C-alpha cells in the first residue's frame, strides 16, 4: 500500500537473525569497531542453548556426536600426512559441549597425537557464553585480558591443551587449521527479498502505525543497495534469503585453507538453493513470532549451501551438503552405539542411548533437517601424481563422512 511504501522509507534493513535487535552472536564476517556486545543481546543476556534455554543442539543430546566429529578431524590430519601442528578453531561454540567431546577423543588418541602441537581457538563475543565455555573446558573461571589485541582470554584445557578466545576469526593466528561451525551460519544476519511486478524488493521491518509497540514486515518502495548487490542474476525463486556475512566468512575460510591447509566442517540445517522463506524464531523450544519481544528469542534462517559453495569462488573444493544421518552413519555411529550398549549394564542408560540416537538419526527429527558441508584444499581431492602421470592409480585417501564407511 502507499502507506506501507511511505513508512518503509525510514526503516532499517531486515533481520539480524539470532543477533537480531542487538543480539550478540559473533559477527565473524567483519571486524567490529566496538568489541563489546550489546548488553541487550539475545546471546549475552540468555545464552539460549540447552533444556533450560530456547533450543537444544546435537552435542547437547549425545556425546557420540562430538566424538565422531573429533574422529573426522583426526582422520583428515592423518590423510594429509600428520602435520606437526594443527589448530582447532570453532566458531560460535555455544556452551563448549562440542569442543569438550572432541577434546575427549584427542585425549583418547594421545599416543597418536603425541608428536603434534594441538591448540584450541574459540571465536566467541558473548561474555556469558565464554565464561561457561571456560568452566567446561578448563575447569576454571578465566580472567579476560582486554590489553591483548587478539585473544581476549586464554588458558589450558583439562587435558593440557592451550586454548584461546577471540572476538573475530581474523584475530585467529594463521596456520594449518581445522575449522568447525556447528549451528553457526544459521545465526548470521539475513536480507529477505521478494520478486514483484516492478522487480525485486527488499523485505524490511517497520513500526506498525495502527498498533502501538508492534513491528511489521513491509516491502521497500524501491530498489535498495542490498537488492542491487545480493540477488544472483540467475535466481528463479520468488522469495530469497541472502546472508552476506556468511559469504564473507566463507571467503575468509577458503583463503586460509588455500594458503595454510586444513579443512572446514560446517553442520547446520539448510538447503542447496531450493527453499524460500525460512526465517523463524524459537523461545522455550517452541516457534515464536520473530517480531514479538525483540531480543528474547532465538532467531534463525536455513543456510543456503549453494550460496556458500558459490562464495568460495573456486579457492577450495567443497563436499556436500549431505544429510546428518548419512554423515553420522558413514562415520560409524551404528558401530559406536552397539559398543556403548554392550558396555552398559544400566537399562536407563541404554534407553537414553537409543533415544539420543533416534533424535540424531531419525529423518523426521534431526536426521534429515541437518546437513554437513566441508571445505578442503583442492590438492586434498586431486592426486599430485595425476598432473604428471595421468595413468597413476595411487589411491587418494577418501574423506571420512562423505562416503560410505567400508569396514575391513
Automatic annotation (TrEMBL):
Similarity remark: Belongs to the NDUFAF7 family.
E.C. number(s) listed in UniProt: 2.1.1.320
Biological process, per Gene Ontology: methylation; mitochondrial respiratory chain complex I assembly
Coiled-coil zones: none
Principal EC category: transferase
Gene3D superfamilies: 3.40.50.12710
Composition bias type Low complexity, residue spans: 12-26
Subcellular compartments: Mitochondrion
GO cellular component, one term: mitochondrion
Superkingdom classification of source: Eukaryota
Reported function: Arginine methyltransferase involved in the assembly or stability of mitochondrial NADH:ubiquinone oxidoreductase complex (complex I). Acts by mediating symmetric dimethylation of 'Arg-118' of NDUFS2 after it assembles into the complex I, stabilizing the early intermediate complex.
GO MF, one annotated term: protein-arginine omega-N symmetric methyltransferase activity
Record's protein name: Protein arginine methyltransferase NDUFAF7
Catalytic activity: L-arginyl-[protein] + 2 S-adenosyl-L-methionine = N(omega),N(omega)'-dimethyl-L-arginyl-[protein] + 2 S-adenosyl-L-homocysteine + 2 H(+)
InterPro entries xref list: NDUFAF7 (IPR003788), NDUFAF7_sf (IPR038375), SAM-dependent_MTases_sf (IPR029063)
Transmembrane residue ranges: none
Polar residues: compositionally biased ranges: 1-11
Presence of the UniProt keyword Transit peptide in the record: yes
Lineage, broadest ranks: Eukaryota, Metazoa, Chordata, Craniata, Vertebrata
Region Disordered: start-end pairs: 1-51
Record organism: Dromaius novaehollandiae (Emu)
Keyword Transit peptide listed: yes
Keyword terms: Methyltransferase, Mitochondrion, Transferase, Transit peptide
Amino acid at each position: 500500500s502507499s502507506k506501507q511504501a511511505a513508512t518503509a522509507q525510514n526503516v532499517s534493513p531486515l533481520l539480524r537473525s539470532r543477533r537480531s535487535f542487538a543480539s550478540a552472536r559473533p559477527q565473524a564476517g567483519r571486524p567490529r569497531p566496538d568489541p563489546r556486545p550489546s548488553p541487550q543481546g539475545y546471546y549475552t543476556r540468555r545464552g539460549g542453548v540447552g533444556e533450560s534455554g530456547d533450543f537444544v543442539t546435537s552435542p547437547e543430546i549425545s556425546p557420540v556426536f562430538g566424538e565422531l566429529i573429533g574422529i573426522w578431524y583426526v582422520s583428515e590430519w592423518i590423510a594429509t600426512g600428520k602435520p606437526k601442528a594443527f589448530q582447532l578453531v570453532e566458531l560460535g561454540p555455544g556452551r563448549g559441549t562440542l569442543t569438550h567431546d572432541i577434546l575427549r577423543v584427542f585425549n583418547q588418541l594421545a599416543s597418536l597425537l603425541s608428536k603434534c602441537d594441538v591448540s584450541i581457538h574459540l571465536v566467541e563475543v558473548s561474555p556469558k557464553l565464554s565464561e561457561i565455555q571456560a568452566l567446561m573446558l578448563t575447569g576454571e573461571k578465566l580472567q579476560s585480558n582486554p590489553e591483548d589485541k587478539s585473544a581476549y582470554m586464554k588458558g589450558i584445557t583439562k587435558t593440557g591443551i592451550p586454548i584461546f578466545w577471540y572476538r573475530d576469526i581474523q584475530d585467529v593466528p594463521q596456520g594449518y587449521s581445522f575449522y568447525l561451525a556447528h549451528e553457526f551460519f544459521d545465526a548470521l544476519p539475513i536480507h529477505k527479498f521478494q520478486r514483484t511486478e516492478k522487480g525485486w524488493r527488499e523485505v524490511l521491518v517497520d513500526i506498525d502505525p495502527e498498533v502501538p509497540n508492534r513491528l511489521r514486515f513491509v516491502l521497500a518502495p524501491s530498489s535498495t543497495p542490498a537488492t542491487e548487490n545480493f540477488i544472483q542474476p540467475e535466481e528463479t525463486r520468488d522469495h530469497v534469503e541472502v546472508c552476506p556475512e556468511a559469504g564473507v566468512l566463507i571467503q575468509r575460510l577458503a583463503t586460509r585453507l588455500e594458503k595454510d591447509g586444513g579443512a572446514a566442517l560446517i553442520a547446520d540445517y539448510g538447503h542447496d538453493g531450493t527453499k524460500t522463506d525460512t526465517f523463524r524464531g524459537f523461545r522455550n523450544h517452541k516457534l515464536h513470532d520473530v517480531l514479538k519481544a525483540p531480543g528474547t528469542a532465538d532467531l534463525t534462517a536455513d543456510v543456503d549451501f549453494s550460496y556458500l559453495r558459490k562464495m568460495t569462488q573456486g579457492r577450495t573444493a567443497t563436499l556436500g551438503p549431505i544429510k546428518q544421518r548419512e554423515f553420522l552413519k558413514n562415520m560409524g555411529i551404528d558401530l559406536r552405539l552397539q559398543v556403548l550398549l554392550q558396555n552398559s549394564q544400566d537399562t536407563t542408560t541404554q534407553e537414553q542411548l537409543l533415544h539420543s540416537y533416534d533424535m540424531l538419526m531419525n529423518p523426521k527429527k534431526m536426521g534429515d533437517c541437518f546437513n554437513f558441508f566441508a571445505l578442503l584444499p583442492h590438492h586434498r581431492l586431486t592426486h599430485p601424481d595425476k598432473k604428471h602421470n595421468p595413468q597413476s592409480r595411487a589411491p587418494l585417501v577418501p574423506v571420512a563422512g562423505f562416503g560410505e564407511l567400508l569396514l575391513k
